[in-house]
Amino acid sequence: MKTQFVVLTPVKLILGLFLLMTTMTAAADDIRTERVQFQKGATSAVVEDSIQGYEVVDYVLNAREGQTMNVSMATKNTATYFNIMAPGENEAAMFNGSVNGNQFEGQLPASGDYKVRVYMMRSAARRNEVADYRLEMIINSGK
Fold first, then answer.
1. Residues 50-78: pLDDT tens digits?
2. Of 10, 53, 71, 143, which is most buried, counting CB atoms within 10 Å of its CB?
3. Right CATH number for 31-140 from 1.10.8.80, 3.30.479.10, 2.60.120.380, 3.40.50.920?
4. Is 124 buried (19+), middle (13-18) or exposed (0-12) by CB count in 10 A?
């Protein structure tokens, strides 16, 4: 058996990197955003929805520094999680559901719009799986 090597010229390498960056940008543009509004006097909101494949949803809710946030998600799809991003952050999560599970409770470090990003792991997304979920978001006055 002969081993063959592929030689990448600088042009092929640059073209490949460009295509990869374009694909990553397109994926980031596919994030659906929904603002969460609590009913007057309420401290919680519940969303029941579904995602399929590589679909991602950002639920945006406003909160103040020092308030306590509690987010939990119930789903039968074991490859579906949520992350939480602090105000002004689009990529780095302050909470990562695939590492820590689908339950978060903590005191908020800053005031502004928090994103609760629901997504499916790549293995399930690649199979174009569907995930129904129930997401509960609670914000209390804090300590």
1. 999 999 999 999 999 999 999 999 999 99
2. 71
3. 2.60.120.380
4. buried
pTM of the model: 0.78
The phi and psi torsions of 129 (rounded to 5 degrees) equal: -65, 160
Extents of the domains making up the chain: 31-140
Q: Extract the runs of DSSP E, i.e. beta strands, from the chain.
A: 31-35, 44-52, 56-63, 68-75, 80-85, 95-96, 103-107, 112-120, 130-140
**Partners of 106 in the beta sheet?**
69
DSSP letter string, 76-114: S-TTEEEEEE-TT-SS--SEEHHHH-SEEEEE-SSSEEE
Q: Which residues of 82-107 are buried (b: 16+ CB within 10 A; e: fewer)?
A: bbbbbbeeeeebebebeeeebebeee
